[in-house]
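testing teh design pipeline on a random one, pls ignore if ur not involved
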């Protein structure tokens, strides 16, 4: 019976740790973004983000980035602001994705799927949201090959001046 105390302590401490943001590549600089409230791109180049920290609510895109953005923190009112010319391209999965976002806003920017480089993930989708409410304003989402430009599942999407292009055998906006 004495062995249960350490096991219970270990299990409870695993669940009490908050999720953090994960950054790969140099496009977002060398700053520690793990618990930042706001993240900004710093330079053109490789860069991928997984936004998991609950208090991160803003992403500013200013550059041409090769990678992906995955928002999993379920923060209410998360906002992505991108300047003219800010582009994120990716060759697998979804270039931009959000899960469980409430009142997500994507303003500007281009999210473009490119040719799969042999990862086995298939053609890249420009954007994907699930279980979310989102507004797209002035953004472009494009898939490549058989991929759709933007896929939404169990979500509500408001569009103001957006561009959605599917690949050769994909659709611009797919509702699943």
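output:
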């Amino acid at each position: 019976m004495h062995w249960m105390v350490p096991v219970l302590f270990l299990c409870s401490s695993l669940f009490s740790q908050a999720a953090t943001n994960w950054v790969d590549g140099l496009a977002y600089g060398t700053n520690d973004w793990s618990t930042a409230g706001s993240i900004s791109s710093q330079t053109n180049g490789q860069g991928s983000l997984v936004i998991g920290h609950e208090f991160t609510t803003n992403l500013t895109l200013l550059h041409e980035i090769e990678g992906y953005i995955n928002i999993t923190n379920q923060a209410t009112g998360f906002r992505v602001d991108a300047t003219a010319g800010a582009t994120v391209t990716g060759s697998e999965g979804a270039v931009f994705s959000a899960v469980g976002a409430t009142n997500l806003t994507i303003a500007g920017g281009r999210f473009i799927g490119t040719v799969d480089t042999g990862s086995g993930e298939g053609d890249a989708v420009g954007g994907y949201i699930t279980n979310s409410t989102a507004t797209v304003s002035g953004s472009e989402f494009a898939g490549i090959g058989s991929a759709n430009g933007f896929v939404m599942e169990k979500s509500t999407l408001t569009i103001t001046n957006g561009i959605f292009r599917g690949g050769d055998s994909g659709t611009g906006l797919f509702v699943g």
